[in-house]
Structures are given as structure tokens and as C-alpha cells.
Amino acid sequence: MPKLFHKITRSLISLINTIVLVLIALAYLGAYVSPIHISFLSFIGFAFPLLWISNLFFVIYWALKKRKRFVFSLLALILTWAQWHAVFSFNTGKEVNRSELQNPIKVMSYNVRMFDKYVWTKDKTTPQKIYQFIKSQNPDILCIQEFYINNNNPQYSENNIISKFKQFKYKHLEYNIETRSGKKYGLATFSKYPIIFKKPLAFENTTNLSSQTDINVNGQKIRVFNNHLESIRLKRENYNFIDSLEFKSDKERRKGVYEIFTKLNTAFAHRASQAETIGRHIKNSPYPTIVCGDFNDTPVSYVYRKVRGSLKDAFMESGNGFGGTYNGNLPSFRIDFIFHAPEFRGFNYERKKINYSDHYPITTLLELNTQQQK
């Protein structure tokens, strides 16, 4: 009987290991297949960190058992190391002082959730805290998503909001929604360096928006893309459903899950199309590029691969840990990014864990290699 139990246990472990390997392969494939064509692969991408860690344990287990099967699990880890590094980064380099660099540029990307207009944080001073935080970080280039203006409300009027960013001499505002009541929603790119050209990058069949801003940094032209890609658009009732799932009937569960998966499906497809558009603009840029924004997708995704292309990920260069940037009811994934062209070197990547929005701000210090550009 003990031998039979041992055999069944080993077979079960082998089966689970096989399932994990198949799912890792599908998650990897999902970064190369557009969700417009096959959407279920994108769902698996969310589970990649858990799958990769599980497979690591299988490698250790089979190695201790001296089974050749460990080779397959080890090979899966090696082949997906780049994806894992984009999920979990470990850098031992010391923090660099900007005085040590030539042409240093500190970049910040922050989804401010309309400056907490609806007091989600239950703190009416949050807008002021956001302004003060940005001022304390003193970035040279600031990319804001979910920028909000309401000219019928003095607190959120354009003049008042812009006055909070007076440390920046130049600005580029783009609105994807403008209402008759004076409300505006969009993107803002602020710069201490002269902006020499700017334009919006609109997407079809969606209200999301990206912007292109050309900046002259001490005689060197660079191009900055600020992006806010399609969100899942979950409503309050969707979050309430998730919180009370265990108390729902089977019928209510099926209905609630179907509604959420439908929204995810739609968002995956829209983001894929948006990422392809942004990727084309990045490839066509005559200048070194910096790409910032809220992508609403993970590092193991079609969107991440399409937008990043041959650019460097600032988090991978000098970040640490998992670096989750989502600060909401769902698990924290890294969905906000700063990419840059090879002409830059990245240092001092930070994710600031402050609860002023449903996203954490991220910053990095870049050095423009003028020799490489020439």
C-alpha cells in the first residue's frame, strides 16, 4: 500500500507540474498573440508570477529526487527568465547622485485619479498632498494620467491646477473628454526644458489617449510619449461582487463572473490596438524616446511587448522587488511603466507607496548619452 500511495502521489505531482508548464508556455505565447485574435492567453499572463514561482519549487523538488524531469522545469525557467525579470527585479547598485551624471533627467509618471476629485481617499487634503509630493520629488519631466480640470469649480479650475505646477516652465495638455459643463479629462506632460512640438495620439473607438511631446534638453531633442491605455472599467457593483463572492448564489456568481470577464475581454482587445498604434509612433521617432504611462496591463502581456519594443524598462535597470503600481481592491500588479531608448542610462528607479490615488507614482533618473546619439 505505501508503494501504491507513493506512486499515486508522484503521478499527481507530475500531472500538476505538466499543467504548470503548459500554462507558463501559454502565458509566454500570450505576449506574442494579439488578444484581438485569442483573448484567453491574456488572462493566463496575470498568473505568470505564481506559475513561475510554482515551477521553481518543482525544479527543486525533482532535483532533490534526482529525477530527470527537473530538466524540463529548469528549461522553462531559463526560457522565461526575461519575462520573470520584468516581473521581479533585483539590483544591488547604489543610488546615484544626479551631480555624478551628464545631462541628467529625472522622470516621473503618475496616474493621479483626477486629483481625488470624488474623495475616494476620504481625505479632502489629498489634492494638496499630491501637489506637494510632486514638488518634493522635483522631476524634470512629469507625465500625469487622469488629469482633471473643472472650470466651474475654483479648486479644479485650469488656472488653479496649473498654478500648482509652476516649477515647470513648459506644459502639454491633451483632453480626450470635454463636457459642456466645463469638465476636462486627459493627460498632462510638464517639462523644465523647452517643448518644441506637441500633438495628441488619438485611438479609434475609445476615449483613451496618448500624447507626443518633443523636448529640447540642452540642445538634444528627445520625444516623450505619455499614455493612458484602456482600463477594465469595473463599476462599484463589480467590486462589491468580488468582495461578497462567498455569499452569492451559483446563479449570481455565474452572472457576476461573466460580466467581469466580458469587460476584461473588451479591455484586452482595445489595449492591444492602442499598443500597436503607440509602438508604430515610437519606431518612427527620429529622436531618443521616453515612454511613460498607465498601461493597465502587466509585463507579461502583448501590450507591454508591443509598446516596449527595443526600449529599456527603467524598473528592470534599477528597480527592486515586484514593483506593483496598482493601489486598489484587486491584487497589485506593475501596470505603470517608464521605458526609454538605449541612448539613455537609467538609475534610481523608485515606486512611491503613497495612498493618494489608486496608482503609485514611479520615478527614474536618466542620463542622456550624447555620444551614442551622434
From TrEMBL:
A GO molecular function held by the record: catalytic activity
InterPro entries: Endo/exonu/phosph_ase_sf, Endo/exonuclease/phosphatase, GPI-anchor_lipid_remodeler
Segments crossing the lipid bilayer: 12-34, 40-63, 70-90
Annotated Endonuclease/exonuclease/phosphatase domain residues: 108-359
GO biological process, one term: GPI anchor biosynthetic process
A Pfam family: Exo_endo_phos
GO CC term, one of those recorded: membrane
Keywords noted in UniProt: Membrane, Transmembrane, Transmembrane helix
Gene3D superfamilies linked: Endonuclease/exonuclease/phosphatase
CDD domains: EEP-2
Official protein name in the record: Endonuclease/exonuclease/phosphatase domain-containing protein
